[in-house]
Amino acid sequence: MENKExxxxxxGYPPLKPVTSLQTTARLIGRAKRRCGIYLIExxxxxxxxxQSVDVRSRFGQHRRMHGNIVGFTFSRVARxxxxxxxxxxxxxxxxxxxxxxxxxxxxxxxxxxxxxxVISQEEQERWLLNPEMENQLDQSPKKEFPEEFVQRTRGRxxxxxxHDKSGIILEILRKYLKNCVPMPRRTEQSLWSMSCMPSxxxxxxxxxxxxxxxxxxxxxxxxxxxxxxxxCGHVNVASDVLFPRGGLIERLRFRLSFPLVRxxxxxxxxxxxxQVKLIALSAxxxxxxxxxxxxxxxxxxxxxxxxxxxGTIYAKYHCSELAAxxxxxLNDR
Length: 334
What we know:
Layout: H1 2-10, E1 17-18, H2 26-29, E2 37-43, E3 48-53, H3 56-66, E4 70-77, H4 83-97, H5 122-130, H6 132-138, H7 148-152, H8 155-162, H9 167-181, H10 185-188, E5 194-197, E6 208-214, E7 217-223, E8 233-238, H11 240-243, H12 249-258, E9 263-266, E10 277-281, H13 284-292, H14 294-310, H15 321-325
Antiparallel strand pairs: 1-4, 2-3, 2-4, 5-6, 6-7, 7-8, 8-10, 9-10
Helix pairs in contact: 5-6, 9-13
């Protein structure tokens, strides 16, 4: 109880009000007062949810209809133009305090049970994080089969990919990534991760050759600068709290010494939460070196498992099964 009161106060909210028996917050907020702001809901299982609304009273009613276990509520007024920034700030601050949030976007980790647990048990997930490559090799899930009409949708792009001079090293990058950074690739293919072949994304500046997607983001991109078809570049998104566990300058300096040509950029994806960083390589060999590095593999593995615990990939319909087939069967190769 004491921690909860400290958390609420430090986040800038008034004290939580008990709402177990309330269907509306009209009595708490009032009918005439401004109702635009950031709210905090407490559930009976001691988890919390932080959200924004231009009409918090109406939004609470929607939550109440979906969840019968709401026990606490508080709200602070915020100007509409500041809602997005303030919501993210409070979610990140709540995570730093150790609060268990039921939010999906802007958070780094999902608490409690998820749909992923029905595909990969929590025990398997924990084992996988300790040794992703070994657990992927031990996985006996059958190779996924796709209907011919689905395969046909990306066949033209895959044929074009095969003709590319750098297709060999691209395949090596993709295989290494799947083997060390993606939980049970056979079991989770298309539904929880997908592979796009020569998508049209960002084609004006940096056309993509191959992309691995999870949730609502790209986790690995192999591309080339516009006008330089034979010069590869790319980036990988990883968990910053795993790559730089102490968050200090020394860790970053050591990493830069190992990868002097790699640029470290701030990640901007909502699904990845506050603990994300983008590692940008300016060459195929630079990207392959990143994917082979155990520190990068571990940080990518943690981020990917977190993403899978949030949701499936929204890019499933763009999955190139023929390109993936060249990578997934190679998992058992040493």
